[in-house]
Amino acid sequence: MFHEDLSAYAYSDADDIFGDPTTGVRFVSFRPAYERLNVGWLEAGRPWTRGRGPEGFTDKLLEILAAQQVNEMLGLHYCDLCGAAPFDSHPWFTPRPGHRCAAAGTGELRVPGPPGVAFAAPQLIGHYVADHGYLPPRTFRDAVLAFDPRQAAATSYPWTGFPWIPDGAELYDARVE
Known about the structure:
The protein has 177 residues and is α+β, with helices and mostly antiparallel strands. The chain is built from 3 helices and 8 strands, in the order βββαββββααβ.
């Protein structure tokens, strides 16, 4: 699904839902008070920028992806820049030969940007950057390099890897249901 970089986020008008990557059964949802801007929603046949990011950018982006689970969905979105989806014998969550990242994803990430703005990207952004040479806009690259999801997480929900979760967010924990 293609969206122009830095356009208003429009994939879903629902709440943002952050999952707990350590348990997989705890979620917090809320209506974002911040503006969400698209980054990295690429599609074959649509233009996108190639290039090398600054030193450490790719590793930091992958670190953020490992720390967050945002808007996880059922089903997979395969990278159509790679061509055909991998064979059934190739697990979707492992990189293809010669790639650093898996070519499929199920969710998104959020990176705090300028005041009141969070960048919204598909999980596949790690694959696009590491394996296809996608160069996101400078404002996003700067935000990624400045963000530490383990240090900046919301006090009430440290497992989210995101700082702007309101106190009134709705928590669902399947371990206590």
